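C-alpha cells as discussed.
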C-alpha cells in the first residue's frame, strides 16, 4: 500500500480528535473516533453488517448493469446520428438536471415500495450519465482515423465497429465509472426512505435512535463499498482500455 493513501485518513482522525477533545461539537452528535472504530469492528464481526452490505451491493450492481445495457446503445445511436441527438438533447439535459431523490416518490407510485423502485431510480439516473458520456465519446472521435478507414475502403459498419467504437470506449468507461458511483449514492439514499434492509436503512435507524457511533460506522461502510467498487472498476478499465489517450 502506498504511504500517501493513509495520509488523508490520518489527517481526518487528527482533526476529529481535535474537535472531540475540545468539545467544539456536541459529543452526542460527534462521538470519539475510538468509540466509532470499536463499533465498526464490532459490526464487522457480526453477520448483520454483511447482510446489509449484500443487499446494498445487489441493488447497486443491478442498477449499474441495467443502466449500462440501456445507456450505451442509446448514447452510441444518438452520438452517431446528429439529427436524433438534436431532437432529444433537451429531454436528456432536462432529466439529467433533476435530482434523483426528487423522482423517487414517483417511482414508488409506479413500482411500489419494494426493491424495484430503488433499482429503477438508480437505473434512470445512471443511464443518463452513460448516455451523455457515450454521445460525447462518439462525437469526439478523431476524424483522421475515420478518413484513413474510408481510404482503405472500409464500409460503414466496419468504421463504426473498429474506429468510432474503439475511440469512444475510453469516454464510455468514464461514464460507466461515474454511473457506478452514482448507483451507490442513489441506492443508499433510497434505502433510507423504505425497506428493512441495506446500509441506508441502518444509517437512518441508527440516527433515529441516537446510536451515533453505529450511524457513523455504517456511513464508513457505505464509503468503503463505493471506494472498493470504484477501485475494482479502475482495475478492469486499465486491462481492457489500454489504448486510452494514445
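Sequence:
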Amino acid at each position: 500500500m502506498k504511504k500517501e493513501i493513509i495520509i488523508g485518513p490520518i489527517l481526518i482522525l487528527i482533526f476529529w480528535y481535535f474537535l472531540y477533545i475540545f468539545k467544539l461539537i456536541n459529543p452526542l452528535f460527534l462521538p470519539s473516533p475510538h468509540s466509532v472504530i470499536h463499533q465498526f469492528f464490532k459490526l464487522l464481526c457480526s453477520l448483520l453488517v454483511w447482510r446489509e452490505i449484500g443487499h446494498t451491493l445487489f441493488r447497486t450492481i443491478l442498477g449499474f448493469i441495467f443502466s449500462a445495457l440501456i445507456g450505451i446503445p442509446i448514447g452510441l445511436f444518438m452520438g452517431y446520428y446528429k439529427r436524433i441527438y438534436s431532437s432529444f438533447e433537451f429531454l436528456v439535459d432536462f432529466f439529467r438536471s433533476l435530482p434523483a431523490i426528487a423522482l423517487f416518490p414517483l417511482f414508488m407510485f409506479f413500482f411500489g415500495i419494494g426493491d424495484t423502485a430503488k433499482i429503477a431510480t438508480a437505473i434512470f439516473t445512471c443511464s443518463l450519465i452513460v448516455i451523455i458520456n457515450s454521445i460525447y465519446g462518439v462525437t469526439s472521435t478523431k476524424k483522421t482515423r475515420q478518413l484513413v478507414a474510408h481510404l482503405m475502403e472500409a464500409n460503414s459498419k466496419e468504421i463504426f465497429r473498429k474506429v468510432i467504437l474503439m475511440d469512444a470506449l475510453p469516454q464510455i468507461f468514464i461514464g460507466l465509472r461515474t454511473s457506478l458511483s452514482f448507483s451507490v449514492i442513489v441506492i443508499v439514499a433510497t434505502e433510507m426512505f423504505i425497506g428493512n434492509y441495506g446500509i441506508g436503512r441502518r444509517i437512518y435507524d441508527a440516527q433515529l435512535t441516537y446510536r451515533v457511533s453505529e450511524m457513523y460506522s455504517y456511513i464508513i461502510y457505505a464509503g468503503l463499498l463505493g471506494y472498493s467498487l470504484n477501485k475494482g472498476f479502475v482495475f478492469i478499465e486499465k486491462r481492457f482500455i489500454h489504448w486510452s489517450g494514445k
